[in-house]
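can u pls check wat happens w/ arginine
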Amino acid sequence: MWAGRFAKALDSKADDFNSSIRFDCKMYRQDIKGSIAHAEMLAAQKIISESDRDVIVSGLCDILRDIDNGDLEIDMSCEDIHMFVESELTKRVGDAGKRLHTARSRNDQVAVDVRLYLRDEADEILALLKQLVEDITDKAEQNKAVIVPGYTHLQRAQPITFGHHLMAYAMMLLRDIGRIKDATARMNYSPLGSCALAGTTYNTDRRMEAAKLGFDGIMLNSIDGVSDRDFCIEFMSAFSTIMMHLSRFSEEIILWSSWEFRYVELDDSFTTGSSIMPQKKNSDMAELVRGKTGRVYGDLMTILTLMKGLPLAYNKDMQEDKEALFDSIETVKMCLDIFAPMIRTMKVKPENMYRAAQEGFINATDLADYLTKKGMPFRIAYKTVGQIVAECIEKKCVLDDLPIEAYRAHSELFCNDLYNEISLETCVSKRLSEGGTSVSSVEAQITYVRKELQK
Ligand code: ARG
């Protein structure tokens, strides 16, 4: 390509080292699409002739079709996908192909390709996220009245509904959807026409090619146009947040599936056995999602470190953005794709959840509230109930089984109605505050999430 300036060919090791086609070949579709828009703009601006444009566009369409259906193999000895497409075009259509790169550089070309690629992938990731939120919400609806201990510090804290717990994840993932949409909107400006860095002396129409490619506008500074990888960082940070959420959910599913909890059972089709221990049923999918979170964080670190201190404008370092970006996209897609059916087929065990909720004094707050509502200051009520809990632990019973006389020895305010007040059903059904655990509060959350999913 640059034979004019050089007397010697590139050393073969240096050539391998320098080349990116192994991984950027993924973007052939976007590269060709960008080139078609560029050729059309060049002709509209009379920079190339209409007949050259026609030859170029039909040549590019043929190349796209041939790669798509396997008739054309991408030549891995080319430096990158941009070089391959251009040289293949020239091979097929001759001189017209050599006019395509007028008023363009690979620096703005690659910046466009990555944006187009990410925009397509973002759509797929959004669809996967929506599917998962839908499945979680359906599971929550089926379990909106199932009582389970809620935890803080992984200690049983207060009774909640399992639907309430699941909806917490739906809310997190809904924010993830928002993050992907925000990042897409901010990214959707075209760097094409920035050329190497300084713009061009040709009378190009950047806005025309931006519109053809579905961008909302152009990047207003050509140096920024070729130097910016903020959009990759933003997406990969959103991917990391998705993975963080999935890893928390995975961790809980792994715990809940253990024999100690037995709150849920994953379907056989989403678990594995052990090669030696015949009794085992392992939550491998959830464990792998938890594990793959590390990869996606690593990918984010790669690109942050890559961009740190990089002088303007394009530097070859930036070629290293793609493998990390592609890896994080593939990983997040794989994890979302496995998570949804794993949740859909997960069996919930309400009896075991209820049994666990009966132990652990998780209605102690409600007992304190009972006294407070009868006039005792909350701090005194808190202390009184603490003493009653200690007494129960000593007597090896739960609050629900302690006789009324024993209660009245602590306070005259206790009457027989306390038993109803501290039943698990009452504890849950009275928590009617917005966002709370009662069935109607959870129903409101479900309605909200389903409405958001329509947007
Ligand atoms: N393969 C290169 C990349 O991914 C394309 C841009 C090359 N530009 C250059 N001036 N060498 O970054």
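The mean pLDDT is 96.
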